[in-house]
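Subject: Sanity check before I submit

Could someone independently write out the structure tokens for this chain? I want to compare against mine line by line before I put it in a report. The sequence has 359 residues.
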Amino acid sequence: MKRETLGWNEVFAANFEPHAAQGLLPGRVFLQHNKVYLAQTDGGEVWAEVTGRLRYHAQGGDDLPAVGDWVAMRAPKADGNYRIHAVLPRKSKFSRKAAGTRTEEQVVAANIDTVFLVSGLDNDFNPRRIERYLIMAWESGAEPVIILNKADAVEDVAERIAEVERVAPGVPVLLMSAKRSEGIEALLPFIGEGRTVALLGSSGVGKSTIINRLLGREAQRTGEVREGDDRGQHTTTHRELIVLPSGGLVMDTPGMRELQLLVSDRGLRDTFDDIETLIAQCRYGDCRHADEPGCAVRAALDDGTLDASRFESRRKMEKEMNEMASKQAVIKQSREQQQQAKERTKKLTRAFNKSQKRW
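---
Independent answer below. Compare away.
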């Protein structure tokens, strides 16, 4: 398969030149299984693993390959896996905070052109969740598109579309019923030769069904949602790139019950651009938007032009990011101290070894 079909371009080619001089080969990660990766190369699919050197120098999980990454690999001399020596700079990445109490970044999708943010119009419909996805979509560098699926499940479709357009001004909002194969043609302009799209959303919103419609066959396993809360099971258990008949690529991802945010000034600013415009109009630069005179935000809340729940959502997410930034600063300092300790140990070991040789 041609590299260009897989998303290769002049920027990736320029970044790969130093690796080509070392005899390395390019490949794109299609699937990750534990610590082994399935990569697509000029010669076909190969299994690969990260070198110890790359893993040692990684400052966090975001420095290691993710599905969608272009990597520089060396072929094995005999039987065995290829060895990944480097990850090429990403043009985009969709990240979230890793699950649990850790504050590490988890790269969900790399080198994506368009992020399809899928939301069901059934009982799972939640504009506040869409806002959270939009924050990380804008931060990723990819273009967000909102897909409202399960149009067959509700009657007040127009009202819900209007509600989404209020929380996502300027973002394309597409209506479809994947179950009935309705509206799939609206996605096609975003998919084409060499372009990569990713479907993101909670469990049960129909991501796998949408991919099956794009493929024209039942390739992805799907499941029914639970009665009562319209929540689906995790029918997709891993991230995987899939080549479409159109020549584009699509990434299916496991459903995310909760999207925990990383620090994202750009994402917060772009998602709440209407509120940012109001903040810029406040009389005081340090306005708390409470009872200060000349507060444009408070005036908009009072006359109803700004929805109170939307403003509260922004305030909540800004607080969440500030807390995350404080935790990350502590962890960064700890890592720097650990790295300094490693360097001191290396120097002492080298000095000791030299002294032993003299004797």
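---
OP: Matches mine. For the report I'm noting this point. The longest strand covers residues 25-33.
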